[in-house]
Design brief:
The complex is a heterodimer.
Chain A: H1 2-13, E1 15-17, H2 19-41, H3 45-49, H4 64-68, H5 74-93, H6 97-112, H7 121-135, H8 144-150, E2 158-160, H9 162-180, H10 195-199, H11 217-232, H12 237-245, H13 252-258, H14 263-280, H15 286-294, H16 300-309
Antiparallel strand pairs in A: 1-2
Helix pairs in contact in A: 2-5, 2-7, 2-15, 2-16, 5-6, 6-7, 7-9, 7-15, 9-11, 11-14, 14-15
Chain B: H1 13-17, H2 19-34, H3 41-73, E1 90-97, E2 102-107, H4 117-120, H5 123-131, H6 138-155, E3 161-170, E4 183-194
Classes of the chains: A mainly alpha, B alpha+beta.
Chain lengths: ~300, ~200
């Protein structure tokens, strides 16, 4: 126990430059902007987030913020949308990072949690991202805050590394737990891996008429098998990082894991799968916010190298 | 701790009665039989229902210290996604009538019947439409239909009634060359709203 505690203290004391967290911040802000604009442009702000008593579609739940502001009336909801939009711009530009992340988290959360039938995993991923951006210093570089402090857009200021580790942990939980809950018959190996065949026939998700899927059943089966096993492998993600961090130690499993940079094939499969989802299914910004988390798999040095090259 | 799976559907009898859930339960009961466990589907279902209740109660006790933190911070967890694909999905269909025959003005994913499509095709509204085939959601369904009725009263001045229904169809089995289109169509959940009262 003592050893574990010492390990956790060591892990949470590590520092690194803030490039990865800054890029993550910018991506999250862009995805929230997309989410808000898509709702507003579909004319759904009041339909989804105003209570039925005031012209909305459903009876809604008011969390502590919504209740304190007087409940889900059109005035309150539009005010919250305005605040969220302003905070999104500030977060993206890196203006008062922690404050903008907190304001955005509370306004966006108050809106989406009010209507449980109009939300999804993507909103939870977004609010988790925002909470980590409240706790971490995401404006140390690539931000207006950085420009104000140093007179330039980037800096080597060190920030706590644990928010990035927490993002990796979150990825492992999302994929691992979604994988083990896929117990419906069509997901299972014994049933021919036909889940995505059925998902693509469901009007809730389909982008195209589902009947064409009958001509690509093997592709749907392969995609089902790949995503099902790959999601289960999400639980191994922390192990990949643990073995990388302790590569000087001995052990056959460690050596096998460290033989290749497993982050690359894992990310490649994930990105391919999410691009497939974006093309075939309408699941809102789920794939976008999931892929934004992938940035955390790379160290600030690696992200900086990519940014410099491009 | 919060990400340990839980879903309200685990103790929602209407969700258990949905066709895809019944199909999954039958398959799991058959697997138990194949392993030598002598259990019928109703017995298996009863045991699973009881287990789900105990599991959710235990989980609620374990997560209690963390739940408040998640509630205020927004750091929610819960990753049940596409856990059990719908094998008999439903299509929401909206008709209006001027007193004679009904005519369809909206049908999910139809380019021909596309009234309110911008709103109803949005992924956040699709979630509700999809749930109409998975459980009761009677109050939510009524909320949706009444909200649509207010718009129909404005958009179709001659219409006197709006009718909402869902058509349930069975997805053909994969590799069934004889049947590649949906099967066994049947109408469910009919709701009629008088539009005159809304003008």
């Amino acid at each position: 126990m003592k050893r574990f505690w010492r390990f956790m203290v060591d892990l949470s004391s590590r520092r690194e430059d803030g490039t990865t967290l800054a890029v993550f911040r910018i991506l999250v802000a862009a995805i929230i902007a997309y989410s808000l604009v898509s709702i507003a442009s579909a004319g759904l702000v009041e339909a989804l987030w105003v209570d039925r008593a005031y012209g909305g579609m459903q009876r809604l739940y008011a969390n502590v913020v919504m209740a304190a502001l007087g409940g889900a009336t059109p005035g309150t909801v539009w005010w919250l949308v305005g605040v969220a939009a302003g905070a999104t711009v500030c977060l993206g530009l890196g203006i008062y990072g922690r404050v903008s992340a907190f304001v955005l988290l509370q306004s966006y959360y108050a809106l989406y949690i009010s209507n449980g039938l109009a939300t999804g995993g993507y909103d939870m991923l977004i609010s988790n991202a925002l909470w980590l951006l409240v706790l971490g210093d995401s404006t140390a570089t690539l931000s207006v805050d950085c420009r104000r402090r140093h007179g330039r857009w980037s800096s080597d200021d060190l920030v706590a590394a644990w928010p990035r580790y927490a993002l990796i942990w979150q990825l492992a939980l999302v994929y691992g737990f979604t994988g083990i809950q896929k117990l419906g018959g069509p997901w299972l190996p014994g049933n021919g891996y036909t889940a995505l065949y059925y998902v693509m026939h469901d009007p809730t998700w389909m982008r195209f008429d589902g009947t064409f899927v009958a001509s690509i059943v093997p592709v749907a089966q392969f995609s089902t098998a790949l995503s099902w096993h790959w999601e289960h492998a999400g639980f191994l993600l922390p192990l990949v990082f643990w073995f990388r961090a302790t590569s000087d130690r001995r052990g056959r499993v460690r050596a096998a894991f460290n033989r290749f940079d497993l982050r690359k094939p894992w990310s490649l499969i994930g990105i391919t799968m999410h691009l497939g989802i974006i093309f075939m299914l309408n699941v809102g910004p789920f794939s976008l916010i999931s892929m934004a988390y992938y940035v955390a798999l790379w160290t600030p040095g690696e992200v900086r190298r990519v940014l410099t090259r491009s | 701790m919060l990400s340990v799976p839980a879903s309200s559907a685990m103790r929602d009898i209407s969700a258990w009665r949905a066709p895809h859930a019944q199909r999954d339960l039958a398959a799991w009961a058959a697997r138990a039989n194949a392993l030598g466990i002598d259990v019928t589907q109703p017995e298996f279902e009863r045991a699973l229902w009881d287990f789900a209740g105990s599991y959710l109660e235990t989980r609620a006790i374990v997560i209690r210290p963390f739940a408040l933190y998640a509630h205020y911070s927004g750091a929610l967890q819960g990753w049940s996604m596409f856990a059990s694909p719908q094998t008999e999905p439903v299509w929401l269909t909206i008709d209006v009538t001027d007193g004679e025959a009904y005519r369809t003005v909206y049908r999910e994913r139809s380019a021909e019947h596309a009234w309110m499509r911008r709103e109803l095709d949005h992924n956040r509204v699709r979630k509700l439409e999809g749930r109409l085939g998975r459980g009761a959601y009677d109050d939510h369904y009524r909320g949706l239909v009444e909200w649509l009725a207010v718009r129909a009263a404005r958009d179709f001045p001659d219409a006197v009634r709006l009718r909402a229904r869902v058509e349930r169809r069975r997805t053909p089995e994969p590799f069934d060359d004889a049947e590649t289109d949906y099967l066994d169509a049947r109408w469910e959940r009919e709701l009629v709203v008088d539009l005159g009262a809304l003008r």
